[in-house]
Specification:
Length: 94
Amino acid sequence: MTQRTIVRVPEEIGNKYRFVVVAGKRCEQLQRGAFPKVEVVVPVNKHGQAQDAPKLASFWGQVAVAEVEENRIAFEEPEVITLDYTTEIPISVE
């Protein structure tokens, strides 16, 4: 049986979908070398030596989820623009 992780969605984010999108984008930033905004426990190898920051999405995904849960990631809601493409064209019956 797999263990399930329960996360707390901050009120500012509002829903689980937006939480996942923000955490996913933050995970991409972390994988490209962004500095983590929470304390990160670096994994050690079997000899007890600290490893380089792993490139695994699962590791950085957990860090990103922790950052979003603690409201350390700022985001903006995009403005929704409704375009009206209806035009009136006179019809000639000649």
